[in-house]
Fold this sequence. Notes:
globular, 6-stranded mixed sheet, GMP Synthetase, Chain A, domain 3, 2 domains, 15 strands, alpha/beta
Amino acid sequence: MKSKNVRRTLLSLLVVALMGSVFGSGCYDRIELEGMAFVVALGLDKGPNNTIDVTVRIAIPSEMGSGNDGGAGGTQLGASRPMTVRSNTVAGALTLLNSTVERRISLLHLTTIYIGENVAKEGVLNFLGPLVRMRDFRRTVNFFIVPGEAREVFQANQPVLEKSSSRFNESISEIGRHTGLTVTNKLHDFLITTEGSNEDPIAPVIAINRNVQQQAEEAKSQGQGGQAGQGKQKGTRENTMPDAKVSFKPGEVVRMGGNSVEFIGSAIFNRDKLVTYLDGIQTRVLLMIRGELQRTQMDFPDPQQKGKFEAIEIKHARSPQMEVDVKSNPITIKIKQKLEGDLVGVQSTIDYTEESNMRVLEDSIKKTLKQKEEDLVNQMFHEYQVAPFGVFRQARAQFLTEQEMEAFKFRDKLKNAKVSIDVDLNIRRIGVQLAPVQAK
């Protein structure tokens, strides 16, 4: 009897050991890399009857850095041609993709999400919420708002230099930090701001320049290559660039050649719904107020010679100081900016090495920046009742509890908010040219 019990015990231990070796190793549901299709870019557009159109581009490692020309029939950005699937949900669309893709779809290497304007206006959380729950999705991906349809960006995007999708997006973020023409926050930043109180999120914008796109199509039809910058350009600058003004609006930069896609400007949200766009100059002003402008070059009209401009490289001397009084009626907001600049370009013949002339230039720039900041703040507060500047972070100490802060109807208060802005600028350096260049 005892021997039978020993045998049963040994048999049970053997079964447990075998089951542990099978299920404890973690390899029972493994998928080899060769069996996975890695989505590197994903686009969201609104479909009919409350459906969603999901566009993806899948990585092809053998094509990365191969130099194939997307406009000449090759792949773009080391990835497949864009594929679009219509479904009721994003997850359902990714599943339907496997009806035409012979490997299992994975978001582990997703780097970018393009959100169409129709989706952004309806509310992005309805579509991004399910994505965040997926195990292979990362909140640190880049994302862009597209004026128009997201799928168009997949078709029109032909980078000038980059061949890798991930490197392309990293380069955009780096350029944005350098120029200040666009914001560079990640999807995680957007979601955190949306989930908070008394704050509205912002997002970078990527737009298609229709004039440049038309140039590219004409060049392609004439056998000059898929990009407008390749081959001999047809027409004069007056014909291809008829706008006489300088434009910083998304999709309206006056230029010839290059990529049809432009990464300039920013999108302003009311909670998770798109309300308006800012151009490149307004985006710089927005970043100044938020204290996130690292360094940028801006052109200002010369105060002493009409029609001339001076180029100034500006950065924060210290973080902006904000004071918010939510107890007053109307609420008052005071913003103090301390900036410093370098004089990097002078069109006029004025000698700005002289202190008196330098003071005149500084006062003129301070007046211009103050007016731009006041105009932007008043537009956001009074017209749209949105708060993308981060000023209400300074007002949290005025509420005893989080419930009291969340119950504060700050959007109603924004309509009549009294805002005062003070801008101080000190031009510290004048470059390596000490005196203006003058012909004799």
